[in-house]
Amino acid sequence: MFADSHCHLNYKGLTEQQPEILARARARGVSAMLNISTRESEWDAVIGTAEREPDVWATVGIHPHEADQHPDVGTAKLIERAAHPRVVGIGESGLDYYYDHSDRDRQRASFRAHIAAARETGLPIVVHTRDAEEDTAEILREEMGKGAYPGVIHCFTASGAFADIALDLGFYISISGIVTFKNAKDLQETAARLPIGRLLIETDAPFLAPVPNRGKTGEPAFVADTAEFLAKLRGEQLSVLADTTAANFHKLFAKTRA
Predict the structure, then answer these.
(1) Paired strand residues for 90
(2) Do the Cβ atoms of 135 and 93 come closer than 8 Å?
(3) Is 163 helix (H, G, I), strand (E, B) or coil?
(4) Closest to 91 measured CA to CA, from 247, 258, 257, 252
């Protein structure tokens, strides 16, 4: 059984055919899906899907691209919405210096607010980082010094050195379909050596469809293809990788076990 630790079921391309998308995922053995929010206007719909579907859970958060548009979403509001029984994580949040859609100071402030909510609630923070390794690592370390909190680096594409920092801080690392791409040699090297006890898999659907689905709209069913590639890359049986990453998902997002 597979757990898709990061998808956007309410994004255009998936929300219009959500029942069919979910049916295809279940048919391929996907037993758990985490529906991620990126802006406050999505929260009700994202949570609503999780309320309807017993194998879907939700997060509340503000993507770094959206930080400028959400100056009023701080720790208190995140904690309030995270009390919902189907909300099992905080985020996604983090830093994105590749697109710089939001002011960097505002991104950093929002990121710290999300970490504080994760610390207060005990729910994992789902971290997005792109072209911002140094600042992400600095914030993660500084905030960990204020009190421990759980988390995952989602859609990991950073360096092996950053992976080691995240692991040292107790984080999990989630691998997306990018690992199947021909030009992802560095990521493949890192993914091959990650400890299986800290490994998650994801689709980030509707984005990043893995080989052999490149060019298609991503969907949770495709997490099985990423898992097959990863198992071969790591020299592991697919059933072991699938079951272990699913168990890791429920261990990290402990509220899913309630």
Answers:
(1) 60, 125
(2) no
(3) helix
(4) 252
Per-residue pLDDT, 258: 87
- The token pair that represents 124 in the structure block: 């994992």
Distance CA 89, CA 56 (A): 12
Residue 235: both structure tokens together:
């020299």
Report residue 193 as tokens.
Answer: 């050596």
Structure-block tokens of residue 43? 């929260």
pLDDT of residue 213: 97
Asked if the model's pLDDT at residue 2 lies above 90, the reply is: yes
Alpha carbons 51 and 176: distance in angstroms, whole number: 25
Instruction: Give 64: exposed, middle or buried? Use CB within 10 Å, 0-12, 13-18, 19+.
Output: buried
Task: Name 65's Cβ contacts closer than 8 Å, sequence gap at least 6.
Answer: 38, 96, 99, 101, 102
Q: Which residues pair with 15 in a beta bridge?
A: none
Strand partners, 94: 128
Nearest to 153 by CA among 105, 113, 189, 187: 187
Full-model pTM: 0.97
Q: Which residues contact 66 (CB under 8 A, 6 or more apart)?
A: 38, 39, 101, 102
Q: How far is CA 57 from CA 10, 90, 223, in A?
A: 12, 12, 16
Q: Identify the residue whose tokens are 């198992």.
A: 231
Find the distance separating the first CA and the last CA of the chain, reported in whole Å. 19
User: What CA–CA distance (Å, rounded) separates 194 from 196?
Assistant: 6
**Which residues sit opposite 58 in a β-bridge?**
35, 87
How do residues 47-98 score in pLDDT, each as one tens digit? 999 999 999 999 999 999 999 999 999 999 999 999 999 999 999 999 999 9
